[in-house]
């Protein structure tokens, strides 16, 4: 399985979006954004930054210290003063490093804060068709752990910020960028810690997280760029069953593993009710224009004030649409037994 990808040909779009956003917020004419297309040198540097970030293992076991210093070094080379680029970590967790950088504006408005995490999920090599910690470019796409979530976005934000600095862009408010740790592993030493330990650096009028939303691609062409108003929250449950232990030569009817499996089978067949809100209605109304046939008709049918339940059920055949339309529940981890020739007296499953 090849995991998340980032378009190599049109990967400069987030830079253009951020510069355009800064221009619109600060009142700078929109023509400023039109000139934001990266130069060949900037594209080369962006690839190098992405390559270096991908090749730094920022899983929970390794932390973000090296990646944070790499980002800080690039900002320093772009002309940011030392007191405008802070590498910060909890005293008891020095490997959970964060970077907070500030581009000074005129101060006429409160700051804009952009947040992007640098840590990534574990990447067992056996699950990948390429080395997850080496940037691979293939058929116009980049492959590697974190290319999409979210070192590709971090690179785009960094490149936009450095270009603003080099070109002397002065918005009517400070633009603060926080490259953070610990988003994938629990958030305690990332954004949460920064807000508690350094609130003066994080105060802002508006916060944007490029981790959410995404670009939709079809036949190599970007057809939309998503903006999320909110995100689903999760709750973790542990299901646990107990049974009588003993030697496998004498199986017992009270089997912890079978009891857990039966419960998980019921859970796998369960469906929560369809739910829509203003965001999901608007999403299906707009997305319908990019579809055809039954999918288009069903999206239109669920976007109105009186949604068609049967149309919604048809849409849920697609896992992504299903997650748009209802609460989901799925088993992610299993644990049972200690040796192969003894009956497990306990079995556990983690459910999210």
Top keywords for this entry?
three-stranded antiparallel sheet; single chain; alpha+beta; globular; five-stranded mixed sheet; 12 helices; 352 residues
Quick overview of this protein structure:
The protein is an alpha+beta fold and 352 residues long. 36% of the residues lie in helices and 18% in strands.
Can you walk me through this structure?
By secondary structure, the protein is α+β, with helices and mostly antiparallel strands. It is 36% helix and 18% strand. The protein contains 12 helices and 15 strands. It has helices at residues 13-26, 31-34, 40-54, 65-77, 147-166, 191-197, 199-202, 256-269, 278-287, 293-302, 309-315, 319-325; strands at residues 5-7, 85-88, 98-103, 112-117, 136-138, 141-143, 175-180, 206-208, 215-218, 221-225, 237-242, 246-247, 331-336, 342-343, 346-351. A 5-stranded mixed β-sheet has the order 2-3-7-4-8, with helices on one face. It is globular.
């Amino acid at each position: 399985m090849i995991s998340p990808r980032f378009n190599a040909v049109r990967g400069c779009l987030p830079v253009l979006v951020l510069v355009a956003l800064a221009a619109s917020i600060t009142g700078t004419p929109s023509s400023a954004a039109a000139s934001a297309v990266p130069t060949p040198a900037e594209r080369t540097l962006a690839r190098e930054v992405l390559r270096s970030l991908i090749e730094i293992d920022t899983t929970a076991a390794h932390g973000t210290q090296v990646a944070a210093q790499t980002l800080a070094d690039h900002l320093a080379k772009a002309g940011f003063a030392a007191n405008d680029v802070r590498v910060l970590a909890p005293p008891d967790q020095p490997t959970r490093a964060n970077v907070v950088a500030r581009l000074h504006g005129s101060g006429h408005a409160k700051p804009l804060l952009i947040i992007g995490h640098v840590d990534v999920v574990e990447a067992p090599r056996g699950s990948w068709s390429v080395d997850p910690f080496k940037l691979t470019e293939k058929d116009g796409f980049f492959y590697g752990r974190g290319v999409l979530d979210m070192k590709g976005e971090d690179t785009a934000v960094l490149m936009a910020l450095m270009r603003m600095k080099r070109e002397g862009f002065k918005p009517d408010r400070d633009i603060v960028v926080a490259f953070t740790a610990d988003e994938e592993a629990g958030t305690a030493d990332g954004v949460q810690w920064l807000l508690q330990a350094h609130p003066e650096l994080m105060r802002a009028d508006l916060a944007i997280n490029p981790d959410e939303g995404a670009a939709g691609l079809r036949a190599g062409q970007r057809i939309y760029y998503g903006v999320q108003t909110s995100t689903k929250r999760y709750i973790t449950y542990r299901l646990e069953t107990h049974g009588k232990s003993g030697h496998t030569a004498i199986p017992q009817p009270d089997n912890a593993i079978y009891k857990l499996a039966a419960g998980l089978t019921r859970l796998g067949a369960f469906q929560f009710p369809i739910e829509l809100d203003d965001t999901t209605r608007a999403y299906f109304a707009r997305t319908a224009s990019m579809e055809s046939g039954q999918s288009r008709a069903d999206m239109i049918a669920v976007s109105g004030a009186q949604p068609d339940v049967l149309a919604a059920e048809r849409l849920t055949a697609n896992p992504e649409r299903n997650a748009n339309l209802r609460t989901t529940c799925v088993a992610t981890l299993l644990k049972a037994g200690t040796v192969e020739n003894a009956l497990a007296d306990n079995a556990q499953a983690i459910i999210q």
